[in-house]
Input
Amino acid sequence: MSTDPQTETLKVMIADDDDDFRAVVVAALRAEGHSTVEACDGQQLVEALERFRGGAPGLRPDVLITDVKMPKLSGFGVLESLRSARWNLAVVVVTALSHESIDVVARRLGAAEVLHKPFEPGALLAAVRNARGYALA
Output
């Protein structure tokens, strides 16, 4: 039996140092029935993933959303850490930076999707659904 990607419930982990922005993302995801785990920076996200590594399969997130510019560990640092640790996860990168090189670097590091702030909740939900089938290589 196949799952409809439009209605599939996902576990999404979000890393962004802007509390208000993170709250909006969480609200949009939860309104669609997805469960969320939050991190205030990239380092906290990577540490949380390490705790999930040995846990039950249901604890592992389906998709990560990470901001590019964060204290302690940037979104690019998150992508590099995931690749080094051989995590096979879909990643959506969000950024307020508008330079084309951001997209190029994010995709080169394995991001499935790149969204530029501000964006509509529908664009976020579509990016999460699209990323779901994509795994960090």
Summary: The longest strand covers residues 90-95. The helical segments are 19-31, 42-53, 75-84, 100-108, 121-132.
